[in-house]
Input
Amino acid sequence: MWLDEVVAWINEEHTWRTDHVIPMCWQEHPHIVHELATIACLRWEAAYAVTSTALEEWHRYALPTFLDRISQRIGSTGCPPGRHQAHPGDARNAIYREGDESTRRREHRWQDTSDPRDGADPDGSIAADMTHPSRQIESLQPHDAWRL
Output
C-alpha cells in the first residue's frame, strides 16, 4: 500500500519526537488514514509546483499541523508498537448504529416535529403524511436545499 511508504518516509525523515511518530497500527485509525492521504497528496502537489512556495508551506504548516493532530487524537503515548489501543468510542458508536437506537431517534424526531396540540402522533399518521413539514424536508433533493 502506498500509504505505508508515506508513513515510513514521514517517520524516518520528518519526526524526532516520539509523540509525533505515526503509530505502526495507523491503518486501524480511520482518522489517520484520511489525514495521511491528504498530507501525501499535498506533498505531491508541492513537489510539482512551479515555485517553492507550496513546498515551504507543506514543511512549515501542513506537516507540523498534521503531526500535532495525530498527537492530539491518539494521545502522547499513542499506540506503542504491538499494543494497539482500540478507539475509545467503539462501544458508543456501536450503540448509535444499532437498529433499536436508530428507531428510537427517528420516533423521537417525529415527536419533536408533531403539533403539540394534538399529542405525539399516537397513530403514526404524521409519519405517513407527506404534507407534514418534516416529511417535506425529507423529500427535498440536494438541489432543493435553497428552499429551506
Residues 143-148 have pLDDT under 50 and may be disordered. The chain is about 60% helix and 0% strand. The helical segments are 2-14, 30-47, 53-74, 90-97, 99-113, 125-128, 133-139.
